[in-house]
Design a protein that fits this description.
Radius of gyration: 31 Å
Strand content: 15-25%
Strand order of the largest sheet: 10-23-24-25-21-22-11
Distance between the termini: 60 Å
Shape: elongated
Largest sheet: 7 strands, mixed
Length: 571
RNA sequence: UGCCCGGUGGUGUAGCGGUAGCACGUCAGCCUUUGGAGCUGUAAGCCCUGGUUCGAACCCAGGCCGGGCAGCCA
């Protein structure tokens, strides 16, 4: 009864977990489960990485003694930087995962990798090729034609060893030679046509400095790094499927511990872009404010947007693991954060587009304080006092001079409730004489309704949020929408995906009125603005007593849907 | 025109030869001092064609469709 299977029938068993379980039962790895998350430190992590992180750390955590390594795949010094090493660690930790002491770098294995390469040479399974990059490509053949063997393919082990050592010692220029495995130039799998495993690259490595001028390639370094770390299950994305034979070949050729590579589909999301190239394009083109712009699907962007680690983890669970390549609806991500914040975010009233309401029969100068529940989902969160006075702000959208059918909010002559406060009735609409714009409403309140209900028990259809004008705190609020207007990028494989960007992905409101209590809201803290959505205090741009709010996600808006279907349907 | 991988409601995911389930989304109703949340219900699916079998989403064959692969990137 303590087995995980019997306690939780919802434990999802995707095909990878099934393999791990089988391997455990057959004792393939002596009962060990060791996974790894192996990012190249050349960019910021995004929600797609989160899927891999949740998988790798998740699988490991499901077994006693299971561990997941964090390994930086830093074999290409040209593209990598310490900045990314730091941000990646921060993001993985923030997501709630812990690699303990298992932090590794492929560059830690450069010496070992080099020795293995010499061994391959001695065994006649690797050779130094002196063809140019263009020539190698030419000799490789095509998808449908076999490749040809390099004229250098049959150099003696002695000559290869000598050349390789001189490569290491810096005797040759970049590109003069490479080390290739000797496999099969006619293989239908291009990865097996004598892949390059070492290239000369004079670049200062962020960790090894100038110690090396030759660097191992991914396929070679990755397989051996997994082996060195005794990884049992090396989980990676589908595009590496064709590389698995090389992965296996490498470990077999060197007769070392065999890790097992298993591939799964990477995550795609609607209405956004995920590739590093495109994200970089957005940052460099100034289409967003940076890698942590709240519109970005990066972990740092989502964090700044107000997403919680829990919501992201839940999302990854919902998405599941399989081998089909798919596009997950953004609505699922939004559902996950709403679900989390609904339970945990304190409620607060904030008017985004203020319209002043004067309550004519309310005594000038008098202030009432009403109790407002902090979270109806969680009574333990208590309540707070909210000041009320003769002039309040309500949302412009909450008033219609000509209310359409099923519009339950304020309109001339209509009575609604101000949440937690009282019933008011609209008596007069003041307009700008020139523009005709409604600039102020005059209402009366029913003193009997103070507290939000009346002794006669009469009901009102609408309940509006509000903020007392003289107590209101001025705030800036940023409303975010999808990066891409359409669900996907369609056939726009060119750089011209910029034309598909949603021009309204950011809307900044500078004249918002929020409850005074928000003056000392903590950076990053999350709230529900009642009837509107979830917002968090921007960690970058907020000042003391001057919070800037980011909208994480709106509340589901059934009125908006009604209105939409009304306009679609004609009336 | 080579090799590899995949195809279950709109979306994602279970099902491993025995009545196709779950989640998101949709729509409707109930409830409501958030048009939120919650509750109830609805519609919607096994790529196709054969075969094996008492019985096929599952096994076999052939097709169709989608994706990946020709870095000295990862």
């Amino acid at each position: 009864m303590t087995s995980p299977e019997s306690t939780s029938e919802s434990t999802s068993t995707d095909f990878i977990r099934a393999i791990v379980q089988d391997d455990l039962e057959s004792n393939k790895y002596d009962g060990r489960v060791v996974t790894r998350f192996p990012p190249e430190p050349n960019g910021y992590l995004h929600i797609g990485h989160a899927k891999s992180i949740c998988l790798n750390f998740g699988v490991a955590s499901e077994y006693d003694g299971g561990v997941c390594h964090l390994r930086f795949d830093d074999t290409n010094p040209l593209r990598e930087d310490i900045e990314y090493i730091n941000s990646i660690q921060e993001d993985v930790r923030w997501l709630g995962f812990d690699w303990g002491s298992h932090l590794y770098y492929a560059s830690d294995y450069f010496d070992a990798l080099y020795s293995f390469a010499e061994q391959l040479i001695l065994d006649g399974r690797a050779y130094v090729d002196s063809l140019s990059a263009d020539e190698i490509r030419d000799y490789r053949g095509t998808l449908t034609e076999p490749g040809r063997e390099s004229p250098y393919r049959n150099r003696s082990a002695e000559e290869n060893l000598d050349l390789f050592r001189r490569m290491r010692d810096g005797e040759f220029e970049d590109g003069a030679h490479v080390l290739r495995t000797k496999i099969d130039m006619e293989s239908p799998n291009l990865n097996m046509r004598d892949p390059t495993i070492y290239r000369i690259r004079r670049a200062t490595h962020h960790r090894t400095g100038d110690k090396w001028c030759i660097y191992p390639m991914y396929d070679y370094a990755h397989a051996l790094s997994d082996s060195i770390e005794n990884i049992t299950h090396s989980l990676c994305t589908l595009e590496f499927e064709d590389h698995r034979p090389l992965y296996d070949w490498t470990l077999e050729a060197l007769d070392v511990y065999r890790s097992q590579q298993i591939e799964f589909a990477r995550l795609n999301l609607t209405n956004t872009v995920m590739s590093k190239r495109r994200l970089l394009q957005l940052v460099e083109g100034g289409y967003v404010s940076g890698w942590d712009d709240p519109r970005m699907p990066t972990i740092s962007g989502l964090r700044r947007r107000g997403y919680t680690p829990e919501a992201i983890r839940t999302f990854c669970e919902h998405v599941g693991i399989s081998k089909r390549d798919t596009v997950v609806n953004m609505a699922l991500l939004e559902h996950c954060i709403r679900e989390d914040l609904n339970l945990h975010a304190p409620r607060v009233m904030a008017v985004l587009n203020p319209l002043k309401v004067v309550i004519d029969n309310f005594p000038e100068g008098e202030v009432l304080e009403f109790d407002a529940v902090n979270n109806p989902e969680d009574p333990s969160m208590g309540s707070r006092k909210v000041p009320f006075s003769r002039e309040v702000y309500i949302e412009r959208d909450d008033f219609r001079e000509d209310p359409p059918s099923r519009f339950f909010r304020l309109a001339p002559g209509r009575e609604v409730r101000l949440r937690y406060a009282c019933y008011i009735t609209c008596q007069e609409v003041v307009k700008d004489p020139e523009t005709g714009e409604v600039i102020e409403l005059h209402c009366t309140y029913d003193p009997e309704s103070v507290g939000g209900s009346t002794p006669d028990g009469r009901r009102v259809r609408g309940t509006l949020h509000w903020v007392s004008a003289r107590h209101a705190l001025q705030a800036e609020v940023r409303l975010y929408d999808y990066l891409l207007r359409d669900a996907d990028e369609g056939d726009e494989d060119s750089r011209d995906f910029i034309s598909l960007l949603n021009p309204d992905s950011l809307q900044t409101l500078i004249d918002c009125k929020v409850e005074p209590g928000l003056a000392d809201a903590e950076l990053g803290s999350r709230y529900q603005f009642e009837r509107q959505g979830y917002f968090c205090v921007d960690t970058r741009d907020s000042g003391p007593g001057a919070p800037v709010f980011n909208r994480t996600v709106s509340l589901r808006d059934s009125w908006a849907r009604i209105e939409q279907s009304q306009s679609r349907g004609g009336s």
